[in-house]
Amino acid sequence: MLPCRLVVMRHGERIDDLFPDWIRKSTSTGLYQAFDLNMV
Question: How many CA atoms lie within 13 A of 34 on its CB side?
Fold first, then answer.
C-alpha cells in the first residue's frame, strides 16, 4: 500500500491591504456595492 500525502496550499490577500478604505466606498449609499471585480 502506498503512503498517502496531503498537500495544502493557500494564497490570498486581505481586502483591507489592497483597498484600505473599502468599507467607506462600498457602503456609501447604505447598501453594499462592489467597486472592484475582485470584491464580487
Answer: 6
Cell (9 digits) for 35: 467597486
- In this structure, which amino acid lies at residue 32? Y
- What are the Cα distances from residue 32, in Å, to 14, 23, 28, 37, 38? 18, 9, 8, 13, 14
Q: Running along the chain, 40 residues long, what does each successive block of 10 average in pLDDT?
A: 83 84 88 85
Q: Per the confidence metrics, is the pTM higher than 0.85?
A: no
Q: How many CA atoms lie within 13 A of 40 on its CB side?
A: 3
